[in-house]
Structures are given as C-alpha cells and as structure tokens.
Amino acid sequence: MFTQELLDKSSLLRKKWEDEVKKVIAKNPDMKERWSTVSDLEIKRIYGPEDIKDMDFERDIAYPGQFPYLRGNQATGYRGKFWTFRMFAGMGTAVVTNQRWHYLLSTGQTGLSTAFDFPTLMGYDTDSPKAKGECGKCGVAIDTIDDFRDLIKGIPLDKITTSMTINPPATALWAMYCASAQEQGIPLTKIGGTIQNDMLKEFIAQKTLMCPPEPSVKLISDTIEFGTKYVPKWNTISISGYHIREAGATAVQELAFTLRDGMEYVEDAIRRKGLHVDEFAPRLSFFFNSHIDFFEEIAKLRAARRIWAKAMRERYNSQDPRSWWMRFHTQTAGCSLTAQQPYNNVVRTATEALAAVLGGTQSLHTNSLDEVLCLPSDHAVQIALRTQQLIAEETGVVNTIDPLAGSYFVEALTNEMEEKAWEYIHKIDEMGGMVAAIEKGFPQMEISDAAYKFQQQIDSGEKVMIGVNKYNIEDEVVDIPIVEIDDGIEQEQLRRLAETKRKRDSRKVAECLKDLAEACKKGDNVMPYCIEAVKNYATVQEICDVYREVYGEYRDPGIY
Amino acid sequence: MDDKVIRVLLAKIGLDSHDRGVRLLARNLKDSGVEVIYLGLYRTIEEVAQTAIQEDADFCGLSMHTGAHREAFPHLRDMLDSLGGEDIVIIGGGAIPEEDRRALVASGVAAAMFGPGANYNAIVEWIKTNAPARNS
Predict the structure, then answer these.
(1) What is the pLDDT of residues A419-438, one digit of tens each?
(2) Which residues of B touch A137 (CB under 8 A)?
(3) A452 vs B14: CB contact, 8 Å cut-off?
(4) Domains of chain A (ranges plus CATH)?
C-alpha cells in the first residue's frame, strides 16, 4: 500500500507521538486501561499506515462493482437508488396487516416485510391448542391461502417486493405467494421477494424449531432448486446473522457463523440437487444485525462482502460475478435497546442505521423506540422510518460510495474481522461442516460464552448501557403508549379458518397431503406439491404436520 | 442429596423462543453453586409443575416474552399447589410490564419478578437469600 519511504517517515513520527502519549498519561492517566468494542475486541489508541501496509489495493480494496466487492456491488452506490426502506410489520389478521402495509407504502416505504405470529412461525394453525392466546400477537396469523389473498390485496406483486420472515413453514408460505400470483395472472418469472428460510441459524440461535437439521436443509435445497428453475427473481433464502447476534454472539461470530451457514447451503444445493453454483448463487441473500459499536459494524459488513466474494470464486469456482456479490438486508439491534428511558432508543437506532448505510446495506429495517416493551405504535414506526429517510436525504452520507475506505482504522478492523471469521470457518470445516458443528453444540456454546461474558461486563459496569447500569433514574415511570392486540382477533381468525375448512373439498386436501408425504419420503422436491396443496386450501399446519410426521421433530437441547 | 444445595427449575413455555435471558440466568446460577434444571423451550405449565415436584425444586421460574404472563403464572401456582408443591417458590422474568410484575407479586402468585435489564448477580443473590429452609 505504501512506499518504504512513507513507512519510515510514519515510524519516525509515530515514535514521537508515542513519547508524547507517555508524558501525558503520566500526568493524566486514561479513564480505563483496556478499550474494546461491544464484542470485546480490543481497539488500539491509533492506527496508521503500518497497520494496513500488507494490503494490496487491487486485491483487497479496489472499486465498487469490482472484486472483492469490499466497496459494494453497485458501481453507482446510492446515487441511482437508495437502499430499500423495508420495515418489518404484521399483526392481527391478514386484513389488519394489509391495511398497515398500504399505510406504510403511502408514507414512503419501498418494500414490504412480513412479521408472522408465533403459531404461523412454528407451523401451527390458529385452531391448534398450542396456538391459544398467541393469534395475531407478535405478527399476522396466516392459516390458509384465503388469509394470504387478503394479506396481499391491492399490492402489485410484479412491482413491490415482499420479504417473509418465515423458517420451518417457509415452503408452505412461499407456495401461497406463488399460487396467489398465478391467480392474479402474474407469471412466477415476474415476482420478486424473499423468504427467510434459514434453518441453520434457528438451531444456532433463534430456535424456531420443527424438524432435525438434515431434513431442514433438504427442504431449503428444494426451494433453491425450485426458485432457480421457475421463480428466478425470488431470493429463496435470507442467510441470517441477525438472530445469531441477538442471541449474544460477537460481531466476528455473527459474521463467521452466517457465512459458514451460507457455504453449507451452497454445498448442499450442489451435492443434493446437482446444480451448478452459478445457477443459484446470485439469488442467495443475507441479513445482518447492525449493533451499537459503530466502526465494528461497518467493518463487519465490508468484510462480509469480501469474504463471500473470495469464497464463491475460490472455494466453489464460481465464474459469474453476480454469484460473488453478497446482497444483504440489515436490521438495527433489538438487543441494544432498553426498556429504561426508551426515547434514548431513537439515538441508538439512528447510530446503528448510519453504520449499516456506511457498510453499504441494500435494505434496512430500523427498530422502533418501543419495541422492547410492546409491538411498535404507528408513531414509533414513523420515527424509525424517518430516521432512514433523514440519513438518506439530509445527512449527505450517500453522496459518495464507501467513504471510510482507506481509513487506517476501518481497513485494519475490516481485515481483523475477516481473519477472525476465517479462523472460525476453517474450524467448522474441520468439524465436518455446520450441521455437524451444530450437532456438537459448537456455535451454540460459543455464543453462550460470549453472551455470558457481555452480561458479566454489564453487571460489573465494565460495559455501559445507559439507563440500565449508568445514569439510571430511580423509580422511573416509563410513559409511552403500550400497543396491545385485542383478544377478539383470535375469535375472528378462528371463524375465518372454520369457514375455509367448511368450504374446501377435504378429500382433495387429504390427497394433496398424501402426495406431499410421498414426495418427502422419496426425496422429491416438495414445492410443486405444496403449491397444489395450498391451492386446495391445505393449512400451514397440515403441511407442517406432514414434515413432522415424515422427518421427525427436533427438541431443543437447552444448552446454556 | 446435599440439603444445602438450592435447586432451581427454569423453563420457557408455549411457542416463545426468546431464551437468551433464561439461559444466562441458568449459567449464572450454576456458576454460583446453585443446582439448575433447565427444561428448554416449548414446555407446558403441566410439564413444568410436574418436573418441579419430581426434581424437588426450591424455585420454579418462567421467562416470558409473549404477553401471556397474566394467565401463565397463576396457572403455574394452581398446578403446583394441586400437586403438593405449595412450598415451591415461583419467580419470573422476561418482557413483562412493571405494572404486571407488581401485580403478580402483590397477589402472592410469584415471590419475585425480574424486569428487562435486571442485574443477574442481584437475581442470584436474591435466590440465595430467599431460599426456603430444606427439611428433606
């Protein structure tokens, strides 16, 4: 990166500066001895040319749209198009959520993102005893395609992309989307959107669990294969670090486990489906957390793009640059928000959103200030969306691409993130891959250790959370409106489900489910069978019950 | 069994998988010499109560993030009482509004409810201080 002359000069000046620091410290010691990120990665007082002297500009940095994509995939950055303002929303029945979506689109949101309720997320219908009391509480309740039609009413499916945060029942919900599009006369080749569909991070962190890891990965490869052949603009997976981080992982762990999960899916699709990497890799998408430590997050996101590009080209011999691009959505860190003094959360979210933008995200959700306490209120959601619009249209940070490139500190930290992530990736390779590592409890235990360490640092005051362990207000009265979902929603949804079950041809449903079970047993792709089943009004649970029956159920080992 | 060892049963019920807090508490308790039985996710109140009795637990704790706490804790108290576990102390935590936490303690359903941001060392100390004397 630098001439020897410059490095010699820097070394000389650095020595002078160090002498000065020593003198100052002797009189005014630093406030603490060790300075580190929220992930406890130690940070030096200063960075200089010597910290990045081994970098090669062409190999390691280059320009946007050029390998290794450190500076972004798009040559024009945010000038042609901002990131997608994609706020996660869903509550009550499909009708209620549809109204919310239309409202959000009218306020300037540019993509949709679906929050489902717990029963839907877990593959249970509203009339299951397990679902009692949960209907519509943490998201929208979807049982059948009738609900789905109401959910997307009036949304132009060929123009607006919709993301669905759904994992074990992803095939059922995606089938509903595909079937609904076909009903509207929109060909599958025209629809765009995302299903989260990432089960490995469920075993590692979020624990929305249904079947064991092996068949779970098989179902994901089915969706990748189906998307590749018939729904080419769909992102069939959103390989997610978000939940890994929320579970207490460090930034490096989030980076490493997420990318290694991605590699596991790539390898399975190649091995199981016989696909060529470049047939499907351009549609893989990622989802990261943006936590409170500003530079660590920027470095993490930049490193993610570079690691993925290298892995795709070198590990899988990918020839297509679109496979090398890592496209990702980002959400600000829910776990960084506090129930205490909740208005402070606006500042946290703004800082995290800025880091995501400087890290080059393609899509962003900003959390609302009240999300620690309840579902977000309209007003809180508006502030969160305005935070993104303000960053995009007032602050000027979009004027130039990757403005932190070349910063001694940011480049050194980016390199450090990458090196440490590769160490984890290689370790998991040695264990036989991510499924094997999960079965050993390796990523779970690493995260558990990190969460424990952070909690101890909070308890001792070594790390600060304002309002929790510093600047607390005695007997604070939190005075913000609490949004509650009316229990009447459950009765309404039960009525809707009963009506659909009454009108459908139950013999036809049974046949479809039998065909699906056969496909599962034979190892065939389940997607065509799911689409046929949902068209005939099979419910989310009926489809998932087939999976549970054929593949077995997974029990949380409760590692701590 | 060493009669000085405090036994705490912890669980998540229903479909809620927010388990970071409860697992952290389990680990803090274990590290401080408390015996922890963590049942993991997706348990029913019946399973929790029965296991608490079988395991001779001093404390039975639920961590909840879904809003179903107002029904769940009284249900757990009733189940424990009906199975002969009147002495088992109920504790709780998670995303539970302060008003509800106070009400659950005031009504005698729970002995203590810990809110978001609670200090884990303080929870461990509270459990050690409030452990019922064992006569088994």
Answers:
(1) 999 999 999 999 999 999 99
(2) 66-67
(3) no
(4) 57-460 (3.20.20.240)
